[in-house]
């Protein structure tokens, strides 16, 4: 079994999410969420339209974008995922680019950042190239592109989360709930969770 960035995001939301969904097998019915489904459809549309478009302006001085790999399915020992675009730069670094069916409101959600950190980890493992930034395209804000810095600590954090998820699943371990109790209000497992 390998994880997806969604598993990591759910675990960071609350470790008990992992327990309810993957130890007890209680589904969360994510497919009913309109934005999730619209976003998935939009990814397919964008990938078809932009196959030959190279984002040269995202490069650094002396290190322009030199290649774009579209719709990349990547794996490592822990994780798997499809990256909308993997950008290669002239300085041998790479970066993930991900489309979001969302408006940019001067704030980057932690879930979006975590997804980019996961992709950075996958890109480094698969291409043996450094990743120190990623990009988000907000399709509901006229395709605004926002750069997100990615540190070694960010990549180590998602690796630690992946190891913790496997520990919960392998040991049937019931973890402590998140300390952010406001998350419990919207959690799909609020009716079965012990406070």
Automatic annotation (TrEMBL):
EC number, UniProt record: 3.1.12.1
Domain of life: Bacteria
Organism: Spirosoma montaniterrae
Keyword terms, alphabetized: Antiviral defense, Exonuclease, Hydrolase, Iron, Iron-sulfur, Manganese, Metal-binding, Nuclease
Sections of the chain in a coiled coil: none
Record function comment: CRISPR (clustered regularly interspaced short palindromic repeat) is an adaptive immune system that provides protection against mobile genetic elements (viruses, transposable elements and conjugative plasmids). CRISPR clusters contain sequences complementary to antecedent mobile elements and target invading nucleic acids. CRISPR clusters are transcribed and processed into CRISPR RNA (crRNA).
Enzyme class of the recorded protein, top EC level: hydrolase
UniProt protein name: CRISPR-associated exonuclease Cas4
Cofactor binding annotation: Mg(2+) or Mn(2+) required for ssDNA cleavage activity.
Cofactor: Mg(2+); Mn(2+); iron-sulfur cluster; [4Fe-4S] cluster
